[in-house]
Amino acid sequence: MSKTASIASAIEDIFGGEPETVGVRHWLDTGYAPLNMALTGRPTEGLPSGRIVQMFGDSSAGKTVISVDLMIAAQKAGGLALFMDHERTFMKALAEARGLDMTKGHFSLQYPRTFEESITKAIKWARYIRDNELVPASAPLVVVFDSLNSMVPQSKMEKELDELKMNDKLALAACCSSVFPAMAVLAEETDCLMLFLDQIRQDPGIMFGDNTKTSGGKAPGFYSTVRIALSRKVIKKDGVELGQAITAKVVKNKVGRPFRTAQWDFMFDEDGSGFLDRIGGMVDYLIERGIIKKAGAYIEFKGKKVHRGPLVEALRKADAYDDLLEMLVEFEKANAEVE
């Protein structure tokens, strides 16, 4: 036996052979093709299963809407979904109307009191499903934590309000620092996307540059495979706020190209709820890519010249998102064949 073979044999005895390559088993659709394109460069594939992902930004930006579509994508692939509602704001009716299967077993909604309870239940849920083969091994799991900044550590929950000290502000960061390394491993082992929604806060200690920060210290950002930052600009008409123009920037991406962006409008309904304007966003994206042609103030669509407003309204009434998606898919296929 050669020296190289002897070394290889000795190493194999130590490690027990070559380990399996750790890769992404599923790409879950975010429900919005421009965001998928920013994440992976593919119209129907967005976030990876088996990883920790952090999506953060101001309120009413569409974070929960996107998380619902990710859970729907997991269900369509034969998997299950769990929503940890720390904010107590999950709207079942809207999620069901969007297409989420609320049947007990396919979807679970929990209202944990503390950070520790939430993480423990989520890990037990994922492990139990895999250990007992409740779904095929090829089916992804999704857990959504809404939101990280609302996850109260047990140490704070046990104290009276007048007993809280400055050090208690660091309790969440300490919890995240302890838990996230293990969660990253468990997410991969159970092929579970663990999505942490989060809001941003201003850091008064920063005088220049970006003075915003997320919750939980540095651990969530470090152990997240993908981080999506959402910024907003108010949409007004006649002095009335109708919604928000959202820009999503992929500030970290360890499974694709980072720093790409996607835009959408998040509009408010009369009942106080909101919706992500997928149709308007898709029309704008297709124009930007040159798939739909624009001539001055008009848009050329299926042989007709129309203004954007009436076109978007007509497509919205026809629920034509899938038709617009097909245009993008065909365009990407044609480009791939040319290359």
From TrEMBL:
GO terms for cellular component: cytosol. The keyword ATP-binding applies. The keyword NAD does not apply. Residues 205-275 form the RecA family profile domain. Gene3D superfamilies: P-loop containing nucleotide triphosphate hydrolases (3.40.50.300). Keywords: ATP-binding, DNA recombination, Nucleotide-binding, Plasmid. It comes from the Bacteria. Pfam families: RecA_N (PF00154). One of its GO terms (biological process) is DNA repair. Belongs to the RecA family. This is Protein RecA. It comes from Aeromonas caviae. The lineage of its organism: Bacteria, Pseudomonadati, Pseudomonadota, Gammaproteobacteria, Aeromonadales. The gene is recA.
